[in-house]
Structures are given as structure tokens and as C-alpha cells.
Amino acid sequence: MFSPEAIDALLKDAKSAGTPIDGVDGLLNQMTKAMLERALQAEMTGHLGYEAGDPAGHGSGNSRNGRSTKTVSTRNGPVEIEVPRDRNGSFEPAIVPKRARPIIRSTRSPRPG
Prior knowledge:
By secondary structure, the chain is of the alpha+beta class. It has helices at residues 4-17, 27-48, and strands at residues 64-74, 77-86, 103-104. Strands 2-1-3 form a 3-stranded mixed sheet. The two termini are 31 Å apart.
């Protein structure tokens, strides 16, 4: 999905910043946070029917209304994400459902014996 060049650039930036690959503050958790938050923004856009800042949203009866935080458990530790809200409270995210304790796990098969 990612080009080798993009991955190399991320790894180089992490190394120069002293950021570990794994762990709570590591690159993997930073990427998980960024991907989940971007997916949630896309879900909100689909829910509302217009992009953030689009004049089509004026007077639509529903609009973006800030964010709330949620902690997602991962193999590398907890990741705190910001979940967008809508004014009517009708947004039900699919990727990180409301009132669920989401856990992102690896899909690796267990090691043989």
C-alpha cells in the first residue's frame, strides 16, 4: 500500500527525531492515530454530505461540532484519538464505534510450536 520510498522517509524522520518504531510513543502508534483520525473525518464527511469548510454545509441543519477523545488499545499500547462530533449527535462512526472499547490487534498467525 505504501511505496518503499514513503516508508523509508517515515523511518528516516522517526530516526532523526529519536522516535522509536514501536511502543506507546512510537511511529506505529503515531501512524495508527493519524490513519484512524483521517478515516473518522472521511466518515463524518460522508455522514454530513459535504467537506469541512464547504459552503454547502451552511444552513444544512447539521454541521461538525468539535471532537471528543477516545483511547484505542493496540499491541504497542494505548492510542488517544480525536473523534469528530456533529451538532445533531447523529454521527455513528463505523471504524471506532461509540460506547465500544476498540482494540486494534495484529492479524498475524500464531507461531508454530
